[in-house]
Amino acid sequence: PAENRKALAIDPRFIMAYQNIGSEEAFSLSHPGAALSAFRQTLSLFNHVDGQMSAQARAILQINTSANVAYLIGDFQTAVAQYAVTASLPDYAFIVETARMQRADCLALLHDFGGAHDAWANIPVASGLNSAATSYPAIRIESDAALQDWSSVLADRASAEPALAALAAKIPPIKPGMDVELARQIRPFAALALAERGDRSGAERLI
After folding, report:
1. Model confidence over 98-108: pLDDT tens digits?
2. How far is CA 161 from the centre of its chain?
3. How many CB atoms lie within 10 A of CB 125?
4. How many Å apart are CA 16 and CA 64, to the nearest integer?
5. C-alpha 45: how far from its chain's center?
6. What angle, 0 to 180 degrees and rounded to 10, lies between the N-to-C axes of helices 55-72 and 32-44?
7. Which of 93, 112, 152, 159 could form a disulfide with 107 if both were Cys (CB 3.0 to 4.6 A apart)?
8. How many CB atoms are located within 10 Å of the residue 51 CB?
9. What torsion, rounded to 10 degrees, do the Cα atoms 98, 104, 109, 114 define?
10. Is 97 exposed, middle or buried (0-12, 13-18, 19+ CB in 10 A)?
11. What is the 8-class DSSP label of residue 30?
12. In the predicted model, is pLDDT for residue 167 greater than 90?
């Protein structure tokens, strides 16, 4: 977020800086309040983009940002609908792939177990050096926790640790973000799963 805030000091209407801050605060740093503020600021600027992005980018970013706001305020029904629209649009910056995962997660948060399972069944594990790959572990583990599938939560954590470490090894500047994602978004759910299975000491070691 710090680098994007430097950009905003130069151009307070630089919409992508707000978009990037929102994504980082929400999905890497687990700061929902800061993320919500940034995403709402993003939405307020879409009528003032002044050629900052293509029509294709604007179309998908606007509905995806609205979906992110709905997700952050707990309006998962609206988020499901808006992520579905997002996923139907021509892609920009791997947003389609991430929106499909977010839709599945929101179905789980709505306790639509069948819908969530069906959605995840059609989503491959994200890979590569992109935002979808870095987001997948945190989104999937939150979803499995909402489904109270504790075995899958622990399996998610076991696969997330090496996957995020491998990404950080390939792109060293993202390592701090990956470490934060593990600490704030992966291990807490794993600790919850251990506690739910009766391993309190194991849960406490992760916290």
Report:
1. 999 999 999 99
2. 17
3. 10
4. 13
5. 22
6. 140
7. 112
8. 5
9. -170
10. buried
11. -
12. no
State yes or no: pLDDT of 5 exceeds 80: yes
pTM flag (> 0.85): yes
Three-state SS sequence of 155-190 = HHHHHHHHHHHHHHHHCHHHHHHHHHHHHHHHHHHH
| Amino acid of residue 199 | D
Degrees to nearest 5, angle at CA 25 with 52 and 156: 120
Q: What is the DSSP letter of 50?
A: T
- Long-range contacts, 164-169 (Cβ 8 Å, 24+): 164/134, 164/137, 167/129, 167/133, 167/134
Half-sphere exposure of 110 (CA within 13 A, CB side): 20
Count of all residues that appear for the chain in the document: 207
**Measured distance CA(118)–CA(75) in Å, rounded:** 21
